[in-house]
Amino acid sequence: MSDQKFSSVERIKEQSDGLRGSLKQSLENDVTGALYEDDQSLIKFHGLYQQDDRDRREERSQKKLEALYSFMIRLRLPGGLLTSQQWLGLHDIAGKNSTGVIKITTRQTVQLHGIFKSRIKPTISAFNTLHLDSIAACGDVNRNVICSAHPGVSPVHTEIFAFAEKISEMALPKTNAYYEIWLDEKQIADSKTKEEDPLYQNRYLPRKFKIAIAIPPDNDVDVFGNDLGLIAIIENNELIGFNIAAGGGLSTTHGNPSTYARLATTLGFVSGEESIIKAVYEIITIQRDYGNRSDRKQARLKYTIDKMGADIFKTELEKRCGFKLKPAKEFKFITRTDHFGWEKDHSGKWHYTLFVENGRVLDEGDFKLTTALYEIAKTGKVNFRFTCNQNLVLADIQEKDKKEIEKLLKGYGVISYTDNATPSRKNAIACVAFPTCPLALAEAQRYLPALLTKIELLLKQNDLSKEAIHIRMTGCPNGCGRSYLAEIGFIGTAYGRYNLQLGGDTLGLRLNRLYKENLDEAAILEELDMLFKKYKQERKAGEAFGDFTLRTVLS
Amino acid sequence: MLRELKLALLTELVKDATPEELIWINGYVSGLNSTKENISETPAVPASAIKITIAYGTETGNSKKLAQVFAAKAKKHNVQAKVVGLDQYRLNDLEKENYFLLVLSTHGDGEPPVAAKKFYDHIHSHEGSLSKLKYSVLALGDSAYPLFCKAGEDADQRLSKLGGQRIAQVQKCDTDFEADSEIWFEQVLQSLTGNQLVAQPAVTSQQIKKSAGKSIFTGKIIANINLNDRGSSKQTHHIEIAVPEFSYQPGDAIGVVPVNSKHIVKHIFDLLPVHPDLVFFHNDRSIAAFDLLQEKFNITCLHERVVSRYATLTGHDIPAVKMHLADLLSIYPLENLLQFEELLEILEPITPRLYSIASSSVAHEGEVHLTVAKDKYTVGEKLRYGLCSDYLSSFNEGDTFEFYLHKNNQFRLPREDKDVIMIGPGTGIAPFRSFLAERDATGATGRNWLFFGDQHFTTDFLYQSELQNWMATGVLTNLSLAFSRDQDEKIYVQHKLEQQSAQLTDWIKNGAYMYVCGARRMSEDVEQTLAAVVGEKVLHDLKENGRYLKDVY
User: Fold this and answer.
1) Active-site residue among A44, A208, A300, A360?
2) Is A184 in the same domain as A120?
């Protein structure tokens, strides 16, 4: 393939001098709140996105002001764990440098919005003192590695969880750029040799790369929606290895029929830490070498695998690994819903999972979640674990401390808030969308709560309030909110308009399908009311809504 | 006309003369006459021995221009004249001066121009004898202000107190100063030379047709935008005005006479023992009380001296501080119509405000743009707005208002190939937007460097997108920014000057012109910093050569 055909991002990556680009000059330019254009692509590799407040574009333009640029920073948190101390630090940084809202993402980390250019360095430096970084949290590299969140899911949770950290470390870019640019470390004289990066070379990946580890019976990570899925195989309370699945991905583009959502293909089973890491590594190298670098909409691993054929892909993988994959093992997912409320694990520690609507931690009206979590963190007696459903597990609480935490939770109304949310609301996911996401075509997290209130009313009228229907909304077809794996998926097409997707299952094993296009709210509610009525009357015993719609309206 | 004896002799002489003889006598007498004139009318001191200093204090260039005109005129009459700006004037020289002519304008509330401040303060703070000094003052001003020509009058008084002798009375001139200033200089020349030397008949103010005063233009608002973003403590309006056939140059200002807002006047009549429709006679025309207060008088910020007069009028003991008439009336009410009439006597007229033009007639044809900061201040608990900025910023699209051109020859762009350094924080950016637009539109080749500052980058970066465009197209070579409140320590434009000292020195060596516009305090800080950064000598030379120009308020 000739160089000319490469997408412009490929040139930027290759010429970036180890992801440095002109980021330093961009930071020094005080005439604009934005970065130079190429640096806007590069900064993603450092875990930040340049955004602007889209609500304010027109008004600011009138005022002869540039767009209100700010940055989103996303932490690299393999497995989604923070200590109390780190949460306190995060709380302070959020208040000082960002909008103050801590957003729990769909991939088990947290992100802060609204950080002005001049506040990026202080933010990263403060995170660094907490031993936290944002390296490769975005960009064409391996992103945050996710893992089933709840320690109670298995006695070997800790052992499996450790793989998230190991894989994340293994797949870090080797450049020291992050430390030089943001933390003022001196460039090492012979950095060129020290920074040699056999995994990414100077090309990095053609596109983002997502890895998930699922611990059955939980599929809270939606493992098949990832480029690379590891499913822990546990026998007699021992981890014996992982099934490896590759080529999942949920992003599509409206009007581009060559794009599609795809579930990962299971390739086989691998055991032994070294082999597991090696297999992950080589899947990344195949994608690096074979992925499409001219069309970013065809660049994810799913297209690479479909182009090669899964068998050839597997052969190539085995060749690169130097060992054969074993046949995949049996496993069973039972749920992908979070374990709300109190739960005790095998070691006797307690965990409280609380509902955080759309993952947004803030003080709003009477419900002061930010304050509650800050007070709880001050006890130093909990860990903070984030779930891929954008909820929070206050984890690893000793029996003797449980009462104290419970008192705080009750005092701030957290328990009643979680208990009172309907099952459908607790399962719902929405991406960020407006006003900061540059890709958004329609609202998501700002709108879904209000829409859910109306849907809840319909469910109530149809006597379905107890049903835990998986409802997800994304403001564009890129899939951050994993709408393609929902029983009811909303995919934004234009402001106030959504495609209605139906027929997904409750476990994340089946993609949904387009049911109706471009609906406004009235049409959505009309359709859902009709479907709920039909469901109530015609469902089979125990039949989930997604299965029902697949059997009836979609066939 | 002739004494009797002489007449008899002459009659005798011509009685029998032939026509030829008469012609010869006529010629002889004429010749005799011309020589006699020279001898008899030579003054005690020959004109060429007189040396005069004409000093000017100017804000807009008028005083300077007049001083130069006078000097040229003086030379024609063999009077040696030296012209000097007061900012460059060595104060010690005053004691050595023989003939000292002062042309001084008045600004704002009776203040001298910035450039004359040092001189003005000097003569007010020094005692001593100027017994050698023979002087006269030409005071320029605008009669729309209550303290018309006050600075010139003050200077005249002080120079007299210090022992100087007036050679002509102080002459006050309004904005149409040409005729009055000419009369003054005639008088000065007469008293210098001891008699009337002028070839032209002496002029009187009646004889020269007075110019019609300021030309008034009517503009139509086509845009009025608050440039500050939400969350800012500032409110700075960019106002675009359509005015056909109005010509101006970058550096000029417009003068606006605002009117009071209706609801303030309404509120004041709630406090007055007078019906708003009651008709009064004012300046030869009848006008309703409401309109009188709305259009003619300053009621929103009464000067201390007005408050003192109000205290006398009402017989109350009122602290002499600036006050709003509404506050004054609500605490110390008027009792009757008679007192209201007395109030009208003590109130001062609404004075015009000057706004630097922020547009270029080349780039923005048929339009004038202004950058108006809405003044906010609190009196006690109440939030008040500055009269004129409130008046202007409240305009809607399509509204019309009147204004006049205020030329500022002291603040002009240099030759097109010269570099320009502009220091204009806050609304001080206005004339520089005009400069940049003009240089952009005319393709001037000189480089441009702007120093701008305000409180916050995000909300207060006036004209950000335009400046970015000028950066991108190369019109603006450098843009140095100082946002004072974006960090713990306050950063102002002068700090940026310090940081850029090397490059600044280079530009100056290369012949750059420097301009400062904005608040007076800022300009003083800037000047102090510059003196330290480039050196007193360099700064002095810049001023001397007209390469350091200020428009401050």
Assistant:
1) A208
2) no
Domain contains A19: no
Asked whether the predicted pLDDT for residue A277 surpasses 90, the reply is yes
Task: Summarize pLDDT for B281-296 with one digit per residue, the tens.
Answer: 888 889 999 999 999 9
For B278: left if phi > 0, alpha if psi spans -120 to 50, otherwise beta; the answer is: beta
A535 and A490 assigned to the same domain: yes
Tens digits of per-residue pLDDT, A399-409? 999 999 999 99
Establish if A444 belongs to a structural domain.
yes
Amino acid occupying residue B488: D
Q: Are residues A329 and A180 in the same domain?
A: yes
Q: How close, in Å, is residue A55 to chain B by CA atoms?
A: 13
Supply the pLDDT for residue B45: 53
User: B457 and A61 in contact by Cβ < 8 A?
Assistant: no
Q: Which of A374, A398, A421 corresponds to the end of one domain?
A: A421
Which band of pLDDT confidence, cut at 50, 70 and 90, is reported for residue B158?
A: very high
The domain total for chain A is 3
- Are A68 and B227 an interchain contact pair (Cβ–Cβ within 8 Å)? no
Region A480-503: what's the mean pLDDT?
96
Q: How far is C-alpha B228 from the chain's CA centre?
A: 30
Q: Are residues A214 and A330 in the same domain?
A: yes
Give a yes or no: residue A153 inside a domain.
yes
Which range is least confidently modeled, A389-393, B3-7, B301-305?
A: B3-7
Q: Which residues of B touch A67 (CB under 8 A)?
A: none
- ipTM at complex level: 0.88
Residues A476 and A499 in one domain: yes
Long-range contacts of B397-402 (CB under 8 A, 24+ apart): B397/B221, B397/B222, B397/B223, B397/B224, B398/B220, B398/B221, B399/B220, B399/B221, B400/B218, B400/B219, B400/B220, B400/B221, B401/B218, B401/B219, B401/B221, B401/B256, B402/B216, B402/B217, B402/B218, B402/B219, B402/B256, B402/B257
Please state the rounded mean pLDDT for residues A250-259. Answer: 93
Catalytic, A74? Answer: yes
- Together in a domain, A410 and A547: no
- The B residues from 115 to 174 touching A (CB cutoff 8 Å) are none
Is residue A3 assigned to a domain?
A: no
Question: A259 and A183: one domain?
Answer: yes
Q: Which domain holds residue A381?
A: 79-134+337-421
CB A542 within 8 A of CB A508: no
Backbone φ and ψ of B340, nearest 5°: -65, -40
**From the CA of A96, how many Å to the nearest CA of chain B?**
13
CB-CB under 8 Å, B468 with A64: no
Q: Would you place residue B378 in the very low, low, confident or very high pLDDT band (cuts 50, 70, 90)?
A: confident
From first CA to last CA, the distance across chain B in angstroms is 62
Task: Quickly tell me which residue has 């609380």 as its tokens.
Answer: A354
pLDDT at B210 over 50: no
User: Do A157 and A208 have their domain in common?
Assistant: yes
CB contact under 8 A, B468 and A32: yes
The last residue of one of the domains, among A268, A303, A334, is A334
Task: List the CATH number of the domain containing A350.
Answer: 3.90.480.10
In this predicted structure, the answer to whether residue A2 has a pLDDT above a threshold of 60 is no
Candidates A29, A31, A116, A119: best to mutate against B (most CBs of B within 10 A) is A31
**B84 φ/ψ angles, rounded to the nearest 5 degrees:** -145, 140
The mean pLDDT of chain B is: 87
Q: How far apart are CA B180 and CA B209, in angstroms?
A: 11
Active-site annotation holds for A138:
no
Q: Whose CA is closest to B416, among B393, B435, B399?
A: B435
pLDDT tens string A443-485: 999 999 999 999 999 999 999 999 999 999 999 999 889 999 9
Which of A56, A61, A64 is opposite residue B463, by nearest beta carbon?
A64
How far apart CA B504 and CA B483 sit, in angstroms, is: 20
Chain B residues touching residue A62 (CB < 8 angstroms)? 225
